[in-house]
Amino acid sequence: MRSLRTLHRSPQRAVTSDTAHPHTPRIPPTQRHPSPTTWLALALFFLANPILYLHAATDLPSADSVIQKLVSKAKVLSADTNSNRYVYSRTTSTEELDDKGRVKSKKEKVYEVKLIGGMPHPRLVRINDQELSPAQIQRENEKEESAHRRIADERQTNRREMVLTDDLTSRFVFTVIRRERFNDRDALVLSFSPKSENLPEKRIADRVINKLNGTIWVDEQDNELAKVDLQLREEVSLWGGFLGSLKKLSMVMDRDRLPNGTWFNKNSTVVIQGRKLLSSLNIRAREYAYDIRPEKAKSQP
Fold first, then answer.
1. Residues of the chain with pLDDT under 70
2. Which of 177, 161, 196 has the alpha carbon at shortest distance from 74?
3. 150: nearest Cα among 113, 116, 125
C-alpha cells in the first residue's frame, strides 16, 4: 500500500478530454463552438425583440431637427381653431404648506376647459365644491367672451400665445439622450439647459424661464410633447428682491393622446418655494383632467 507521503508527492496530471473520468461524456469537436445555425437564431432573436432593438438603436436624430418639428407642429395647431375642438373637466388643488411640508390650507377649483387650436381655455365652475356666485359667473362669462374675441382676431392668432415658440426654444441647449417607449409609443428623450447666463429679459417671467433646466419626452410620430420635467437651477430674485424671490420651482406634467391624434395636458404637479414681499411661500399645486369629449356644435338660429 502506498504511503500518504508518496501520494502527496505524486505529480498532478491535467484533466483533459482524453484523461477525463470514464463516466464524463466526451464532446465531439464539432459541438464545442456554436454552429452557424445557432448564431443565425441568436441574431434573429435580437432583431425580433423590439425592446432590445430599441435600446441598441443608434440612429438618433439631431436635437435641432426634433425641436424644429415640435415648434412647427405647435404653429399649425395654434392656427387651426376650427377642428379638433374638445371640452373636458379639470380639477386644480392648491395646498399651502408649512416649513415641515404639512398642509396649512387647501383650495380646490374645478374648470370646464375648451381645447381650441391645441391651447386650453379654462372657465371656472366651482370653488371648494361650491357653485359660483352670480358675480363670479358674470366675471367668468366676460373672460370667456374675451378669449373668443382674441381667438377670432387673426393678428392675435399669429402671435401664437402658446407654450412652444422659436423665441422660447432658442434660449436653451437641447440634447437627445435616448429613444424609449412611453405610454406604448416611441418617444425621444431630450435634456435642456440655458444657453448662457446672460439671456435677454423683457418681462419678469423671463428671469424665471432663463434659469430652467430639465427633460422633455417628445412623441416621435406626432411631434408632440408627451412629458415635461423641469426645475429651477438657482434662486431667482424678482425686482432686485423687493417683490420677492423664488428658491425652488419644479414641475412634472404628463400629456395624453386621443385616438384621433389630439393631445391634452392630463396631469401636473408644481412645487414653489420662496418669498412674496415679506411672507414666505410654500405651495404645491396639482392638476388633472378628466371627462374629455368633443365640443357640441352650436345650433344655428
1. 1-58, 81-84, 117, 144-145, 147-163, 239-242, 297-301
2. 161
3. 116
Q: How many other CB atoms are there within 10 angstroms of residue 155's CB atom?
A: 7
Grid cell digits, residue 80: 387651426
Secondary structure E strands in 62-127: 86-97, 103-116, 119-127
Dihedral-angle region of residue 24 (phi above 0 means left; psi in -120 to 50 means alpha; beta otherwise):
beta
Residue whose C-alpha cell is 391651447: 119
The SS3 assignment for 50 reads: helix
Strand bridging mode 236-238 / 263-276: unpaired
HEC assignment per residue over 127-194: ECCEECCHHHHHHHHHHHHHHHHHHHCHHHHHHCCCCCCHHHHCCEEEEEEEEEEECCEEEEEEEEEE
- As to burial, measured by CB atoms within 10 angstroms (0-12 exposed, 13-18 middle, 19+ buried), residue 224 is buried
The predicted pLDDT at position 44 comes to: 55
Burial class (CB in 10 A: 0-12, 13-18, 19+), 219: buried
CA distance 212 to 193: 7
Contact 247, 274 (CB under 8 A): yes
CB 288 within 8 A of CB 90: yes
Domain ranges of the chain: 63-294
Q: Greatest CA separation found in the chain?
A: 119
CA gap 261, 274 in Å, rounded: 39
